[in-house]
Specification:
heterotetramer, A mainly alpha (293), B alpha/beta (326), C alpha/beta (339), D mainly alpha (311), C: alpha/beta, eight-stranded mixed beta sheet, four-stranded antiparallel beta sheet, globular, D: 311 residues, mainly alpha, MetI-like fold, 2 domains
Amino acid sequence: MSAVAEKPARMDDNGLIVQLWAAIRREPITQFFLFILIIIMVVAAFADFIAPYNPVQQSLLRLNQMPSADHWLGTDHYGRDVLSRIIYGARNSLLIGIISPIIAAVVGTFLGVVAGYFGGWADRLISRVVDLLLAFPALLLGILVAAALGSGFWDMVAVLTVAFAPQFARIARASTLAMRSEPFVEAAVSCGVGPLRIIARHILPNISGSIVVVLTLWIATAIRLEATLSFLGLGTQAPNPSWGNIIRDGLNNIFGSSWPIIAAGAAITLTVLAFNMVGDAVRDVLDPETRDD
Amino acid sequence: MTEPVLKVDNLSIEFGPEGGALRVINDVSFSVGAGECLGIVGESGSGKSMTSLAIMRLIPSPPGRIATGRVELEGRNLLDLPMSQMPAIRGNDIAMIFQEPMSSLNPVMTIGDQISEAIMLHEPMNAQQRYKRTLEMLTLVGIPDPEKRFKSYPHEFSGGMRQRVMIAMALSCNPKVLIADEPTTALDVTIQAQVLELMRDLRTKFQTSIVLISHDLGVIADIADRVLVMYCGRVVEIANVDEIFADPAHPYTEGLLRSIPSETNEGQRLYQIPGTVPAVADRGTGCTFYDRCPKRMDICKNELPPHFKVSETHSAACFAIPEASR
Amino acid sequence: MTEKLLEVRNLSKIFAPRFRINPLKKDSSVRAVDNVSFDIDRGETLALVGESGCGKSTTGRLVLRLLDASEGQVTFDGQNVNALSSSELRKLRSQMQIVFQDPFGSLSPRRTVEQIIAEPMAAFGITRRAEQRERITTLLQQVGLSPDDMRKYPRQFSGGQRQRIGIARAIALGPSFVVADEPVSALDVSVQAQIVNLMQDIQKQHRMAYLFISHDLAIVRHIADRVAVMYLGRIIEIGPKATVFSAPQHPYTQALLSAAPAIDPKKRARRIVLTGDVPSPSAIPSGCSFRTRCPLAQPICAQEQPPLKTVAAGQLTACHFAEPHPIKIQSSPTPLTTA
Amino acid sequence: MFRLVALRMLDAIPTMLLALTLVFITLRMLPGDPAIAALGEYATPQQLELFREQMGLNLPLWQQYFVFLWDVVTLDFGESLISSFSVGQLIALHLPFTIELTIAAMLMGTIMALPLGVIAATQRGKSADSSTRIFALLGFAVPDFYLGALMLIVFALNLGWFPISGGGSDFWDRMHHLALPAFTLGILKAAFLSRLTRSSLLEVLQKDYIRTARAKGGRERRVIYRHGLRNALLPIATGLGLSTLATLSGSVAIELIFNRPGLGNLLVGAIEQRDYPVMQAGIVVFAFFVVLVNLALDIIYIFIDPRIRSE
C-alpha cells in the first residue's frame, strides 16, 4: 500500500521553520502555548523593566499581604513582592533550563556518535558509563552532583548537563548505529568517502532531527528539575529568586500565606506545559513516526 | 461448476477521509468453487492483499472502508453481518495465513496454546480433546516431536516451521476457505518447495477451497486451478491456469510473463514493460494500464474496458481483444 | 582474450563477540564465510547463489573490503586488497563498486540525486561543479533517467528508478568491477526486467565484471557467465553457467534448481524436496555441511569435508560422490529460436 | 531459568561496583574540598586537618577508594557529624518511611494507570483518550512538590483531613500520614504510566500476530487482553522500573513537603548541614536501590519474555 501510505513531507521540501509554522497554525492550542512561551521569555528578558518592585527588597510594613492592586500576587513573609520575585525567578529558571539541555545535547551527541560510529573500546567505555547513568533518575544524579559541586549558576548548568547528557548520548549512539548499517552509508564508504565526511554528511543530518526533538522536550524537564533542586535547597540560593526556592520559602511560611507557593508553582506548570506543547509540535514535524495520537 | 463456496461481487475499497477518499480496490469480482484453488497475482500496490483482508473484514478502519460490493460465503453476504458475528466466521469458515511467518505468531504464547486457542474458539471440546487435536494438527503439517514442540515458543522455530504452524492453526477448525497471502514469499526456495508441497497434500486431504495470493507466477502455476490477475486495484484477467500461461489475453499479463527470464528467452534481451505503476491518485478514468500498454488505442484513454470473454473460462478487460474471439 | 581481474583465495570471515567474560554464556561465534576461492575475469559475470544466511552477501563485502576478512586474500588487478592502507583502499574504490538490494535504504534521504551521484566524484578530486554536472547528465541518460531529475530527492522516485540512481552512482567513476548484491530482488517483476536489461547494457558498454549475488535462479541463469553455489559459508559448486544449470553435480545444487517454482508444467514433475531446515551458521555440521539434508549422505560425509574437485571443464563440486562427467553442452542448453 | 536468574544476579555485582565508583568519583574528585564543603569556608586549617584525618581524606586516593568500598561492604558508614546516632542507625530509622511511600505510590499509580491506558488505547481519538492525554500532560507539567504543597494546603491545612507533618506511629496512624504524599506521587505516576500503557498497547495492536489473533476468530476483548496487553507488558515493565526509581527520587521532595522522616529528608538535611558521612551513605543507599530495581526488572523480564529465557 505504498501509494496510500506516502509519508508526510520532510524538511527537505520546505524550510523547517516554514513547516513548523504550518504545523503550529493548524493547532490553535499550540498557538496559544507558543504565545504564552513568548510572553514568558519576554518577561524574563526584560525583568528589570517589567517587574514592579525589587525582588529582594524586604519590608516589614507589608508582610504576608493578600493580592491587591499594589501587589498583584501579594507579598511574602519578608514583605517582598511575589510577582516581582516570580518575574525575576523566570530568568534563572529559563536560562538554566535552556542552556543546560543544549550543552548536554552537544556533549551527548558527540559521545554517542563517536561510540556508535567507531565502536571498539571507546564504545564500550562510553556505553557502560552511559548505561549506568541512565539507570539513575535524573533527579538523583542532580542531587549527587549538586552535593559535590555546590549551587552557583554554572554549577546548576553542570549538574543538569551531567543529568541529561546520557540521554542524548544514548539516542545519538542508537541512531548512529542504525545509520551506520544503512546501505547509503555503506555506499558512501564504498565510494571512498572518509569517516569524518560520512559523519558530517550522512550521519549528523539524519540524526539531528531526533536530537532536536529530544532537546525541545528535555527543556521542559530541565526547567522542572532546576525547580526541584532549588526547592530542595540545592539549586539557586535565597535571596536570589527562582521558582523552586520561592516555593521552598513559601513552605516555611505556609501558615502565613500560600500565595507564593500557588503562584510560583503555576508559573512552573505553565512554562513546562508550554515548552512541552511546542516541543510536541516540533516532534510532529521532524519525527512524525513517533507522534502520540 | 457447482455452487461457489466464496463469491466476491463488485468489491470496492476506499482509503482516507470521507470525500477525499482514494479507491484502492475497484469492482473486484470472482468466485471460488468447492475444493478449488484460485490464484491471485499482482505486483505491489495491485490490491491483492487488501482484497483478501476485505473478505475477512479485517481492513483497518479507519482509514479503510469497504465502499461497495458483496462477499458471499455459501450464499450469505458477510458484509451484511454485524461486526460482532465476524469472529465466529473467521478461523472457522474462512481461515487465513500470512506472508510473515516470523511476526505472525504471538511471541509470548507457546505454539500449542496458539493452535488450541483457535480450536477452543470454534469447537466444543474440552482441554484434553483440544490437546489431542493440536498434536494431530502438528503431526499433519510435518512438525516432528509434537509433544515437545507443543510447549515451544515461536522464536525457537525457523521460518518454514512457523509457516507450518500457521497452516496447522488455519486448518485446525476445518475451514471451508483458506486464504493464503504470499505464504512462501518470505521463505527460502528449498523451504518454499516444502511448504508448497505441504499445501498441495493438505488440499487433497481436506478439500478446502484456497485463495492463494502471490506475486510469483511460478508459485501460482504450481498449485492454482484458476488465476486472477490484478493491476492497480482492478481485475484485468481471469482464466484457467493453463490458458493464462499459454495464451494471455491482457497486455499486462502478457508483458509480465514475457519479462520473466526463463529457458525460452535465455540469451535474449528481456522484454520490459515500460514505465512504472501509477500512484492511486494518478489513475484516470480510462484503463489503468494505458500509459504502459503497447496495444493502447484512443478509446482506452478515457473509457474503462469491461471484461470480454475470450473463452467460457477466460476473460480479460481490454479493448484490444479482437471482436471475433470475444 | 580473458584477463584475470579478481582473485579470491581462501577467504573466511568469523563473526565473534569481542570477548567473553561470563563463562556461562554460550560461544556465539559464527563462521559466515569459510574458505572461499574464486576468480573473475574482466567483463565477466560470476553469480553467487544460495539461500539466506549462506554468506553470499558477506562474501561480496569481503571482496570489496567493506568488511575485513578473518583469513584469506583478495587480489584485484594485481593489488593485494587486504594489505592496502585505508587511503590506498579509498583510491582503489573508484575501480570497485557496489549496487545494493534495498533501493530505499541505499540512497541518503536528505540528499538530492545530484549530490548522491557527485559524492564519489568529489571523493576522487572531481570537484568542479560544471564538470560534475556534465558527467551526471551523461550518467543519468545512460541509466534511463532525465537530467532534470538531478534536483529531486530519492523519495520522489519509484523503486526501479531509485535502483537506476544507485547504478549511476556505482558507475560514476567507471569501475572495472561491480558487486551487485541482490539488485533486483526488492523490485516488482515487471521492473526487474528493466534493471536486468540496464545492467547488461552497461556491462557491454564499459566491459565491467560483475559479482552478481542473488537467490533468484531464473535471473542468474539469464545474466551470469559462471555460477558459484554457496551453502553455509562454503562454495559447494562452481562452474560455467551452462554446465551448472544443465548438469549440476552437487545434490544441493540439484535440489535448489528443481525447487524453484516454474511456470512450465513439464519442469514441475522432477522436483526434489529437501527435508529439514538449514542448520544455524553457529552450529555447522561436521564434515560436509549439507549432509543433514542430503539424500545421498553416508557415514563418510560426517567425518570428512569434501574438497572442491573438478568434474568437468571449469566445473568444480564439493561432494564425495560427484564423479567427473562428460559434457556435451553447447553454449546454451536449449535452442533459442523457439521463442 | 534458575541459571539465568543467577546470571543476572552475578551481572548486578559489577554494575553495583561501577555505581559505587561513580559515587566515589563524584564526591571526591569533582572540584571542591570535602573538608571545606563539610566545615564551611571559615574553618581553620587545624579543623580541616583534623576532619581530613577523621574521614581518611589524607590517604592516597586509591586507598580511600578501597576504604570506601570496604565500608560499604561491611555496612559501616561511620558516625554522623551532627546527630548522636551512627549513620547506620540513622538510615535504618529513615528508610522504612521512604520505602512505604514508594510502594504505596507505585501501587496507586499502577492501579489507576493500567485501566486508563487500555481505555485510551481502545477508544483512540475519542473523548476518553483526549482526557487521558490532558491528564498526562498536566501530570508531566506539574512538579510533584508543587502538587504536594497544594494537597497539603487544601486537605491538611484548610480541611484538616490529614496530618500536616511527620510519619506516624502505629499502623493506622502511619497510613493516615502516608495517604496524602502517596496519593500525590501516585497520581503523577498514573499520568505517566497510563500514557505509556496506551502507546505500548497501540504499538502492539499494530503487530502481525494481532491480525492473526483476529483472523482465527478471537473477539476484540480477547485480542486486546490476551494477545495485546500480554505483549505490551514488556515495555510497560520497563516503564514501571523507571517509574519506581523516579518515585524513589521524587520522594525526596515529597518528604520535605510533608516533613516525613524519610531517607530523602535525611539526605537533603545532610547535604545542607554538610554532614558528610550521612550524605555519602544516603547516596550509596539510593544507588543500591537503583541497581536493585534494575536487577528486579531483568529478572521480571526472564519470566515474562520467553525469548530472553532461551537466550
